[in-house]
Each structure stands twice: as C-alpha cells, then as structure tokens.
Design goal:
Shape of chain B: elongated
Helix content of chain B: 55-70%
Number of helices of chain B: 8
Number of strands of chain B: 0
Structural class of chain B: mainly alpha
Strand content of chain B: under 5%
Radius of gyration of chain A: 18 Å
Number of helices of chain A: 6
Radius of gyration of chain B: 19 Å
Order of helices and strands of chain B: HHHHHHHH
Distance between the termini of chain A: 24 Å
Strand content of chain A: under 5%
Largest sheet of chain B: none
Order of helices and strands of chain A: HHHHHH
Oligomer: heterodimer
Largest sheet of chain A: none
Distance between the termini of chain B: 27 Å
Largest interface: A-B, 37 and 36 residues
C-alpha cells in the first residue's frame, strides 16, 4: 500500500548534494536520541522509585517534558531523511517495520497512559502501577532504539 | 604518526582466545554488541545531558544540583560500565580494524580523556562550593562552563565513535562493520 510513497521518497535523492549530509543528519539523530532518552529515563527511574526520589513525580515529569518533546521532534525531523535515502531497502526490511510499529505504540503509550500516571497526584496511583508504566515505557523506547540500530544488521 | 604505532600489539590481541571466534564464527555478535553499546549510551549520555542542562540552568531548575548529581550518578555509572564492557568486546573481536581507524584513536586518546578530565576537574574544584549554589537557577560561570564542556566533549566521543563506522581515514578495509 505504501510502496508508491517509498518509491517517491527514494526518488527525491535527499542526500545527493553531499556525502556529508547522511553522517551529519545521523549524528543529530543520535544527539536527539540521547536528549530524548535522558528526559524519558529521568522520569521512568523516578516512577520506578529510584533516581530523583526527593522530588515529586509530577515535578520531574514537568521539567523533563520540553526536552522529551523537543528530542522527539528532532528525532522525527532527522529520521525522515534517513529513511528517504534508503527508502526501498527500508520498505523491504522487517526490522524497519518492527521499529515503526513499536514507535507508534511507544508514542501512544507515552502521551496517554504514561502522561496520566506521571502527572497524577502521587497518592492516587498505586506504586505498582507507576512501576509497571515505567517498565513498559523503558522496554518500548529501548526496543525502538535497538530496532534502529539493528536495521543494518538483521 | 600515521599509520599508527603498536600494530604488533593489536595483531597479538587478535590471536587471543575468543577474538577470532567472535570475528569469524559469530555472525550476530557485532550487531548485538553494537546495540548493547548504543542502549547503554542512551542511559549514560541521556542522564549526563540532563545533569549538564541543570548546570546550565536550562532544565530541572526545581531540583537541587546535589540531588541531580547524587541520585543520577548510580545510573550513569551503570550505563558507563555496560558501555565500556561492550566497547571492549567490540574492540577485542577486531583490534586490527580499530588500529587502522583514525577516528578511533581520536576518540580514545583525545576526546574521551578530555571528557573525563573535565568531569574530574569539575568534581574536585568547582563542585566543592556547590553548597552556595545548590538551588540556584543559574549556577556560577565555572559550573556552566563545565556543563558546556561536558556536552561538547561527550557528544564528541559519540561523534568520533560513530565516524569509525564509515570508510574515512581507514587503513584496514573490511571487517565486521556497517553504517
């Protein structure tokens, strides 16, 4: 169904003007990943009952939020050209689709369930729920990162 | 200086037990350990960046700096240990390949030591007076400088590590790699 889109993306030749564009955009993607992961993990660790335990969950979540969203936007912005340049290979690669489906699940989970739990009044959420949400979040996003790395190798 | 010295040493490492096995008979090894390296990097560098942003007065301003430092440290440490061990295994499998990589030498002998030096200098000088600026939204210039240097140097470690994957500045072609 999406094949024409991927053929078009490949046809653009997004990196054809310079051999440094690919590695440059990739580096920005990785820095955005680290920023995003830091903002994610600082909250997930807190939900697990470790890390910044002297601060309220809501406060940690609130101060991490701009970096989480900024990181995700930059990841998307740099991820799209990275897919475009090898769009036909990506289309045929099951690991790419694994990454995309887990990414979709991770984004939905993060901005619904996790957001609710992180912003809720601490007394109203049982600790076991907080821990479960943090574990699911970590597993989902680490799978996205692992998928991204393994596209080249599996 | 180029080609780099000590080739005999790197060739000797390649003959050690397991090195050849990982290189030639373990097809999933490279992707797997590279992935472990990247995931532990997310933990380490992610939390280091959060601390640096606090030092710069850009994030987590409600949290005292000593809290950020003390409570994130164990997790940064876990990340650093897993990252170092997975990196060591990656090197152990293909020492001669890394010997011939200019960016690898820069990463290991220049940028990584500078990043660690910045960390030590900050900890043993500027950080000593943290009591006076623990809750400050804008820490003193020396602390902010350490934060900027930390971001620049650790991102440098990441960048030079990533550059190793390309064919630029390479003596020994081939080996287990990929962009």
């Amino acid at each position: 169904m999406l094949q024409p889109l991927f053929e078009w993306m490949y046809g653009v030749g997004i990196y054809k003007s310079s051999i440094y564009l690919g590695p440059g955009v990739n580096l920005v993607h990785l820095v955005a990943m680290c920023t995003f992961m830091g903002a994610l993990l600082i909250v997930d660790l807190r939900l697990l009952g470790t890390g910044l335990t002297t601060q309220p969950v809501q406060q940690v979540a609130r101060s991490a939020q701009p970096w989480l969203i900024g990181g995700l936007l930059l990841l998307t912005l740099t991820g799209i050209p990275a897919v475009m340049t090898v769009a036909l290979e990506e289309y045929a690669n099951p690991v790419f689709w694994f990454k995309m489906y887990v990414l979709l699940a991770a984004v939905i989970f993060t901005f619904t369930v996790r957001r609710q739990v992180a912003n809720a009044d601490e007394a109203r959420v049982p600790p076991v729920w907080r821990k479960l949400v943090a574990l699911v979040s970590i597993v989902l996003w680490m799978s996205v990162a692992a998928g991204g790395r393994l596209i080249m190798y599996l | 200086m180029w080609p780099p010295p000590f080739l005999e040493f790197f060739e000797w490492v390649a003959t050690l037990p397991g090195s050849q096995y990982l290189r030639e008979d373990a097809p999933n090894f490279f992707g797997m350990f590279l992935t472990i390296h990247v995931l532990s990097l997310c933990l380490f560098l992610g939390l280091v960046l959060m601390m640096d942003l606090r030092l710069l007065g850009l994030a987590h301003l409600d949290t005292p700096i000593t809290q950020i430092q003390k409570r994130l440290f164990p997790w940064q440490f876990v990340g650093a240990v897993v990252m170092s061990l997975s990196g060591l295994v990656l090197f152990y499998a293909q020492p001669v390949l890394y010997w011939g990589k200019g960016f690898y030498w820069i990463k290991m002998l220049v940028v990584l030591p500078l990043a660690m030096l910045n960390l030590l200098v900050f900890h043993y000088t500027t950080y000593r007076s943290v009591g006076e600026w623990d809750t400050a939204a804008k820490p003193p210039p020396a602390a902010r400088l350490a934060g900027v240097l930390s971001i620049v140097l650790w991102v440098g470690v990441l960048a030079f590590g990533r550059l190793v994957a390309y064919d630029w500045w390479t003596i020994v072609e081939g080996g287990l790699k990929g962009n």
